[in-house]
Design goal:
The structure is a single chain. By secondary structure, the chain is mostly helical. 62% of the residues lie in helices and 4% in strands. It contains 38 helices and six strands. It has a six-stranded mixed sheet, covered by helices on one side. Helix 17 runs antiparallel to helix 18 and helix 33 packs antiparallel against helix 34. One of its GO terms (molecular function) is RNA binding. Pfam families: DYW_deaminase (PF14432), E_motif (PF20431), Eplus_motif (PF20430), PPR (PF01535), PPR_2 (PF13041).
Length: 765
């Protein structure tokens, strides 16, 4: 259908019951703009290629004489003079009465009186009435449209109020359509008109409209207005044309703080936080005083780039000025200190806030989550619930992440229930966080359910479910999910391929792994990172190809880190390759000489090979270097409470009951054929003490606690900070069979799903 702004006017004025006839699609608005503003009137110049791939679209081309076929500004008849305005008396001054209206009913009563007395023809009175209906009482926007449609001679201020109302009501398309109507009516737009139109075009991400409006700005000679120039900077930054916005900014003769804030916001919107910090340095050199908006944006940037020094300077500046900071500014300080790792300072500021909104709570919870203070994050979330502050998406994502780290399945399930009960919008970020949480808690079926129910997915959603399947021992299912991702034309990224290569490793798909590794750069232009090389070493090691893995590391185009060598060392333990293990440890000691687990692993390899002297030498080397073994720690959640156990722990209030149950459990396991593996116990202890020592490992204590406090048949879920030792792995397989329990253990490397005496890792971890 051919759209015209004239038909919009007629439709609105004839069908007063249908006050929203504007086009609903951005492309229709663009077509309308091209009808209303043909190139002969306003023709923005296309971008010139610049250093950053973009340039400026700032000029407008106009002819000296108007084309014969157009009646648009500035070549049209002037507006007919309005009839004499009714006199406004002081006794019942409508403007004064309007300013005192407190409710929409008061406005409606006064509206009727204004029509009756004829004061509606006074543009100032009409403007005040429109502002009340469109801005002060935004739910009365339809009534504002009715008033506007009956104005005989609307002026620019009336259009501006309506456009502001539509923008505030999140109806930018209606605002743009009204701007187009303004161009057809004999009303000349002013700076505020262009500002509203530019804001709406940026909200729609309608680049063509924004360019055209910029051309009109130049045509009508308002490009020198600082007000309009600031809006132009904001619009181009919203379109992603930051270089263009910066050129407009640099060309300004005088830049007030609003202009600086527009540029800060542009860099922030495009994620260039380092440039925000750098630009603020320029602002300080010019001795321009920042306002609160400036400080909030720069503090956010400091948190993103980890610039604690600048953040502390801003905090000192706030104290020096002596003005009491607003809640938003204090929240920005909490966020900055939290992201920079200064959690105690952040918490002091947070606790000192007289009023805390959801943003403040979320900032503190996110900080705890970022720095792995997950228990603090969950405790603070509980306080937030007691304070009756409804959480938002950011809160939920952080809480779910903390639950995932702790393996707190019940806590995370409550969050999921809260989201559904309160009908919170399931955004891509929230859905992906739920998938990640369930996968990291070993509940991969629930992760798949969330994934399938998501209406929209991004590449991260696919990557998380692929990695989750791989880590939970479902490598072939992960590969199938990747194939489905490709069929749905979702382009994988480097994170996706970490999951794919992990899946090949866990499933023994060596040939497929090589093919996917080559496909990264060949088909997708992705340069492999150290994580991808680590996956390949793990894949070769799992397949028993120790020499090939060793050679692969030596020929890597980037220097291998300790994790890559540690992966090879773990493979050597499984396959008993002492020579390569010794070389791997030599490289690890050069990179991370204080890591106790590597010495213990090689000591275990020596012990398995019967080289007891070498095994004892490794333990002595640890003592000589002052390296202490990291204590094993296992977590279990029962009835929403997280319980923590260390090896030979006696701090738990139920420790006596637990150790009695451990002894009983070990007797039952031995009766079923279990033989304790004491190779990793203290070498200077006798055999009986060794057996007692391994029976008191943290995961065994946690499992016994789960057996005591959960119903028969209930799945027991454990999270451990270290790699599961050989004895605990063998014992847990036997426990799953003897006690008829599924046991899910997440150690430092992967998930272990123990069922009926076997493990999903196939005894390789």
């Amino acid at each position: 259908a051919q759209f015209s702004t004239t038909s919009i006017i007629q439709t609105q004025r004839i069908q007063n019951t249908n006050l929203n006839p504007f086009p609903t699609r951005t492309e229709d608005l663009v077509r309308l703009f091209r009808v209303a503003c043909p190139p002969a009137i306003c023709k923005p110049i296309a971008f010139q290629a610049g250093a950053a791939g973009e340039g400026m679209r700032v000029a407008a081309v106009s002819s000296s004489t108007p084309p014969a076929t157009t009646s648009l500004l500035p070549y049209r008849h002037k507006q007919p003079p309005p009839p004499p305005l009714p006199q406004v008396g002081t006794a019942r001054n409508p403007k004064s009465l309007l300013s005192r209206c407190k409710t929409i009913n008061h406005v409606r009563q006064l509206h009727a009186d204004i029509i009756k007395t004829g004061h509606i023809r006074n543009p100032f009175v009409a403007g005040n009435l429109l502002e009340l209906l469109a801005i002060t009482f935004p739910d009365a926007m339809d009534e504002a449209g009715l008033v506007f449609s009956h104005l005989e001679f609307p002026v620019a201020a009336h259009y501006n109020v309506m456009m502001r109302g539509y923008t505030a009501k999140d109806s930018p398309r209606d605002a743009i359509a009204l701007f187009l109507q303004m161009l057809e009516d004999p009303v000349e737009p002013d700076a505020h008109s262009f500002s509203c139109a530019l804001k709406s075009s940026s909200r729609l991400f309608a680049v063509d409209l924004g360019e055209g409006i910029h051309g009109l700005v130049v045509k009508f000679g308002v490009d020198g207005s600082a007000f309009v120039r600031n809006t132009l900077i904001h619009a181009y930054a919203s379109f992603g044309y930051v270089d263009s916005a910066r050129k407009l900014f640099d060309e300004m003769a005088e830049r007030n703080v609003v202009a600086w804030n527009s540029m800060f916001a542009g860099y922030a919107k495009n994620g260039d936080w380092a440039e925000v910090v750098r630009l603020f340095g320029e602002m300080r050199v010019l001795d321009i005083q920042p306002d609160e908006v400036t400080l909030i944006c720069v503090l956010t940037a400091c948190g993103r780039v980890g610039d604690l020094g600048l953040g502390e300077w801003i905090h000192g500046h706030i104290k020096e000025v002596g003005v009491k900071p607003s809640r938003n500014l204090v929240t920005a300080l909490v966020d900055m200190y939290g992201k920079c790792g200064q959690l105690d300072t952040a918490r002091q500021l947070f606790d000192g806030m007289p009023e805390r909104d959801v943003v403040a709570w979320s900032a503190m919870i996110s900080a705890y989550n970022q720095w792995s203070r997950c228990r603090h994050a969950l405790a603070l979330f509980n306080e937030m619930q007691i304070a009756k502050v409804p959480p938002n998406e950011v809160t939920m994502v952080s809480v779910l992440s903390s639950c995932a780290v702790l393996g707190a399945l019940e806590n995370g399930k409550w969050v999921h229930f809260y989201v559904e009960k309160n009908k919170l919008r399931m955004t891509v970020n929230l859905g992906t966080a739920l998938i990640d949480f369930y996968a990291k808690c070993g509940s991969i079926d629930n992760a798949l359910k969330v994934f399938e129910r998501m209406r929209q997915r991004n590449v991260l959603s696919w990557s998380v479910i692929i990695q989750g399947l791989a880590n939970n021992g479902q490598g072939r299912e992960a590969i199938a999910m990747f194939s489905r991702m490709q069929k749905e034309n979702v382009k994988p990224n480097d994170v996706t391929f970490i999951g794919v290569l992990s899946a090949c490793s866990h499933s023994g798909l060596v040939d497929e792994g090589w093919r996917y590794f080559a496909s990264m750069s060949k088909d997708y232009g992705i340069r492999p990172r150290i994580e991808h090389y680590g996956c390949m070493v793990d894949m070769l090691g799992r397949a028993g190809m120790i020499e090939e893995a060793h050679c692969f590391i030596k020929n890597m185009p980037i220097p291998p880190n300790a994790i890559v060598w540690r992966t090879l060392l773990a493979s050597c333990k499984v396959h008993g390759n002492v020579e390569v293990a010794e070389d791997a440890l030599r490289h690890i000691m050069k990179l991370e000489p204080e890591h106790s687990g590597d010495y213990i692993l090689l000591s275990s390899i020596y012990a398995s090979a019967g080289r007891w002297d070498d095994s004892l030498r490794m333990r002595s080397e640890m003592k000589k270097r002052g390296i202490k073994k990291i204590p094993g720690c296992s977590l279990i959640e029962v009835d929403g409470v997280i319980h923590e156990f260390f090896a030979e722990d006696i701090m738990h209030p139920q420790s006596k009951e637990i150790y009695v149950a451990v002894e009983d459990m070990m007797q039952k396991l031995k009766a079923s054929g279990y033989v304790p593996n004491t190779a990793e116990a203290r070498l200077d202890a006798d055999e009986e003490d060794k057996e007692i020592s391994v029976s008191h490992h943290s995961e065994k204590l946690a499992i016994v606690f789960g057996l005591i406090h959960t119903l028969p048949g209930t799945t027991i879920r454990i999270s451990k900070n270290l790699r599961v030792c050989n004895d605990c792995h063998s014992a847990t397989k036997m426990i799953s069979k003897v006690f008829n329990r599924e046991i899910v253990v997440r150690d430092r490397n992967r998930f272990h799903h123990f069922r009926n005496g076997s493990c999903s890792c196939n005894d390789y971890w």
